[in-house]
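#struct-pred
JK: can someone run the complex with flavin mononucleotide? inputs below
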Amino acid sequence: MPELSDCSGYKYLRDSAYNRETIRQIKRPAIAQVDTFKRYPDAEKIKLPTDWTLKEARITPLLQKRRSLRKYESESVTMEELAFMLWASQGITAKSGHYSFRTAPSAGALYPIETYFSANSVEDLPPGLYHFDVENFSLDRLSTTDSAEVVANACLNQKFMAQAAVSFLWSAVIRRTMSKYGNRGMRYILLDAGHVCQNLVIAAEATGNGACPIAAFYDDEVNELLGLDPEEETVLYVAAVGKRVVKQKQCSV
Ligand SMILES: Cc1cc2nc3c(=O)[nH]c(=O)nc-3n(C[C@H](O)[C@H](O)[C@H](O)COP(=O)(O)O)c2cc1C
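RT: done, structure tokens with the ligand placed:
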């Protein structure tokens, strides 16, 4: 039976990792671009209504307002806001048998995504690195070193991240999903991470914050910062969160 590291899904993950020493030598395959919109000029067009009463739904303004936010007010995120964002992204909402279902869907209810965060400016929480203990709805303090600059630097030196109140870092315990689904499990893991981040982004909007999803990082640097064994668990996605300042032009449907 192939071990995890022999699987093509796992190899893809490692082969597409960014590394500070080799990033400039990465050769991107010459793949031709394609239009952002797919058009069927010969198809009958059916206009969609935009005068929905559903516009009153509470989620509508959150979706309408959401923009990737890279400029933050210096104001801290409160513990309540942080707790809400953690719950919204990975909180347990129902139990059935040995399953604990969460806010975000997960293939096979296997929940491969672990949530870490670097707290830079959270009320009543010293700066440092934390892990979200989903089972007990609590935090594990992993370090009391302010890691804002280190995280920004590990994310290809995206300087705005150092100003974020919190940077969420999501890893995957690869075996959790691939032991059941094999190589196809890698797709599920990546999809799961997307669900988690999207829930977080909407929860950030709902709490007067804004978020920017980040996928450009030196994988091994972030893994090392979090003390992960990259053979078993690796960072997949990051999001910087902070108080909203910029009033951006909205484009209504
Ligand atoms: C998978 C993914 C990776 C991203 N990585 C970064 C990143 O590393 N740095 C950054 O500034 N924005 C990043 N973004 C944000 C995109 O640039 C942003 O979603 C896009 O420009 C559309 O703008 P909007 O989110 O404001 O609608 C990422 C978004 C996605 C979905």
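RT: quick notes.
The helical segments are 8-15, 59-65, 79-90, 148-154, 174-181, 184-206, 219-226.
The longest helix spans residues 184-206.
JK: thanks, will look after standup
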